[in-house]
C-alpha cells in the first residue's frame, strides 16, 4: 500500500470534482433552507453534521412541517438505510486490522460519492485515501449550503444545472469500468437501471419512496447475483 | 437549545448510527462466499439504481441530462478517470443547454 500522505493526496485530487458537485447541490439546499426560515448557522450545522443530500432535504421539509421527533427519526432511518449496506461493503474493503478510531472517522464520510470513489480503488482501501476525498468534499458540501443560505440565487441556473450532473457522471465512472471486465456486473447494472425505471413509471410502484426502492432493489438484485454469479476465490 | 437545532443534531446522530454500525461491528474478513459476493455487488446495484432514471431530473431538461448520461457512459467506458468523466459530463450538459435555450 502506498504511503498515507500519497494516498491522502490522491484522495484530495479525486475529491475536488466531488466538492464542486456537492457545492452545486448543497447550494440549492441552502436556498431552500432560507425559504424555510432557517438561519445560516442552522443550515450550515445541518450540512456539516448530516452530510447527506436526500436525508437533509427530507429533514428540512419535515422540520418546516412541524413533524414529530419520532417521524423525523424514522424518515432518516429509512432514507439513509443504504449507507448501512455501503458501510457493510466498506468493512470488507479496508484492511481487517484497521483500528477503531479510523472506523469511527471513516463512517462519517460514507456518502454515495465518497463511498463510490473509495470502493473503486484497486485492492484494499487505505483510510487516508477516503480522508483525502473527505478533505475536499466536506467543505464543498458545507460551503455550498452557506453560500445558498446567505446569498439566495447568485449563480445562473445553467451553471448549477451542469454541476449537479457531475455527481452522476462520477458515479458512472465508478461502476462502468468494472462492468467492462465482468459481464455479471454489466448485466447487474442494466437490470438495476431497468427495474429502477419501472419503479419510476408503474403507477403502484411509483408511490414507493426512493429510499425503500433503493434498498429493496439492492438486496434482491445483488442477492440474486451473488447466488447465480458467486465470486471466484481469486476475485474475492 | 432551540427545537430546530435539536432536530438537526438528532438527524445527524441517526444518520451516523446507520453509517457506523457495520464498519465498527464487522471487523473480520467474512469467509462465506455468498455474503462476500453480495457485498461485492452492492455498490454496483445501489449506485445503478440511484443513477437511472434519477439522472434525468438532475438538470433543467431531461434531454440535456440524457446527453450527459450518454457522454458519461462513453467516457467511463473508454477508461477516463473519475475527474475527466465528471468534467466531460458537465461540459456536455452545459453545451446542450446552450443550444436548447
TrEMBL record, chain A:
Broad class of the protein's primary localization: membrane
Annotated TM spans: 18-37, 57-79, 128-147, 159-177, 184-205, 211-231
Cellular component annotations (GO), alphabetically ordered: plasma membrane
InterPro entries: Brnchd-chn_aa_trnsp_permease
Membrane topology: Multi-pass membrane protein
UniProt keyword annotations, A-Z: Cell membrane, Membrane, Transmembrane, Transmembrane helix, Transport
Pfam families: AzlC
One record GO biological process: L-valine transmembrane transport
Annotated compartments: Cell membrane
PANTHER family the record matches: INNER MEMBRANE PROTEIN YGAZ
Assigned protein family: Belongs to the AzlC family.
Protein name: AzlC family ABC transporter permease
Organism: Ureibacillus terrenus
From TrEMBL, chain B:
Superkingdom, taxonomy of origin: Bacteria
InterPro entries, alphabetized: Brnchd-chn_aa_trnsp_AzlD
Keyword hit for Membrane: yes
Segments traversing the membrane: 6-26, 38-55, 61-77
Keywords for the protein's UniProt record, in alphabetical order: Membrane, Transmembrane, Transmembrane helix
A Pfam family of this chain: AzlD
Protein name: AzlD domain-containing protein
Organism ancestry: Bacteria, Bacillati, Bacillota, Bacilli, Bacillales
Amino acid at each position: 500500500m502506498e504511503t498515507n500522505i500519497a494516498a491522502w493526496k490522491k484522495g484530495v485530487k479525486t475529491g475536488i470534482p466531488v466538492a464542486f458537485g456537492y457545492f452545486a447541490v448543497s447550494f440549492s439546499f441552502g436556498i431552500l433552507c432560507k425559504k424555510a426560515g432557517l438561519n445560516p448557522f442552522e443550515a450550515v450545522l445541518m450540512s456539516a453534521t448530516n452530510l447527506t443530500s436526500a436525508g437533509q432535504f427530507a429533514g428540512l421539509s419535515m422540520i418546516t412541517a412541524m413533524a414529530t421527533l419520532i417521524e423525523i427519526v424514522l424518515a432518516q432511518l429509512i432514507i439513509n438505510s443504504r449507507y448501512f449496506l455501503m458501510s457493510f461493503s466498506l468493512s470488507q474493503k479496508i484492511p481487517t486490522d484497521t483500528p477503531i478510531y479510523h472506523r469511527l472517522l471513516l463512517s462519517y464520510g460514507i456518502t454515495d460519492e465518497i463511498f463510490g470513489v473509495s470502493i473503486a480503488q484497486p485492492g484494499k482501501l487505505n483510510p487516508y485515501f477516503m480522508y483525502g476525498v473527505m478533505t475536499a468534499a466536506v467543505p464543498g458540501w458545507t460551503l455550498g449550503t452557506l453560500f445558498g443560505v446567505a446569498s439566495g440565487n447568485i449563480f445562473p441556473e445553467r451553471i448549477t444545472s451542469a454541476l449537479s450532473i457531475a455527481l452522476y457522471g462520477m458515479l458512472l465512472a465508478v461502476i462502468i469500468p468494472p462492468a467492462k471486465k465482468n459481464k455479471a456486473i454489466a448485466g447487474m447494472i442494466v437490470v438495476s437501471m431497468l427495474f429502477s425505471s419501472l419503479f419510476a413509471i408503474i403507477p403502484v410502484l411509483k408511490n414507493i419512496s426512493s429510499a425503500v426502492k433503493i434498498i429493496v432493489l439492492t438486496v434482491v438484485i445483488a442477492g440474486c447475483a451473488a447466488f447465480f454469479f458467486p465470486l471466484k476465490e481469486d476475485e474475492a | 437549545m432551540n427545537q430546530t437545532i435539536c432536530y438537526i443534531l438528532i438527524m445527524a446522530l441517526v444518520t451516523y448510527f446507520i453509517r457506523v454500525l457495520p464498519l465498527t461491528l464487522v471487523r473480520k474478513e467474512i469467509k462465506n462466499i455468498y455474503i462476500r459476493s453480495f457485498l461485492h455487488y452492492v455498490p454496483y446495484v445501489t449506485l445503478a439504481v440511484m443513477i437511472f432514471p434519477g439522472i434525468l431530473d438532475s438538470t433543467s431538461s431531461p434531454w440535456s441530462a440524457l446527453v450527459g448520461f450518454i457522454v458519461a457512459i462513453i467516457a467511463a467506458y473508454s477508461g477516463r478517470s473519475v475527474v475527466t468523466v465528471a468534467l466531460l459530463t458537465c461540459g456536455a450538459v452545459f453545451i446542450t443547454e446552450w443550444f436548447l435555450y
